[in-house]
Amino acid sequence: MRILQIILHLRYFYHMTQSFRNAIPSRALVRTVADVRQDFFERGETVTGWASRHGFERHAVYAVLSGRTVGRRGAAHRIAVALGIKAAPDLRPEPIQPASQAPRVRQAMADAHKRGAR
Asked: Does the model's pTM come out above 0.90?
């Protein structure tokens, strides 16, 4: 009986990990800095040339490639996404508010405005 429980747990764990791996396909496309540098070398392209073609400052691209900047926000983030070091952000729009709630929101805002005007 104990062996059957172990087999069922292992089977459940295997299916959970497989579904988790399939749920994040964009992370598989992210490259390392070493991959990016090797790609530059194989194409015979300079970092400065790539930066000027993509509209980035040369020193900012070197900062991302050397690890001085992580690429959390701003130009460093855009550079990391363009190089493929970071996955592109999910740009799905915000969910639209149901039409049934819209009049209530408008009414609550009007009531608040009236109370503030007194």
From this structure: no
Note whether 30 and 87 are within 8 A (CB): yes
Q: Is the dihedral of CA 72, 76, 78, 80 positive or negative?
A: negative
Q: Any idea which residue has 């009007």 for tokens? A: 110
| SS3 of residue 86 by DSSP | coil
For 103, half-sphere exposure in the C-beta direction (CA atoms, 13 angstrom radius) is 2
Task: Give whole-number Cα distances, 88 to 7, 11, 114, in Å.
Answer: 39, 33, 45
Average pLDDT of the segment spanning 35-58: 93
Of 110, 53, 46, 108, whose CA–CA distance to 82 is shortest? 53
How many CB atoms sit inside 10 A of residue 62's CB? 15
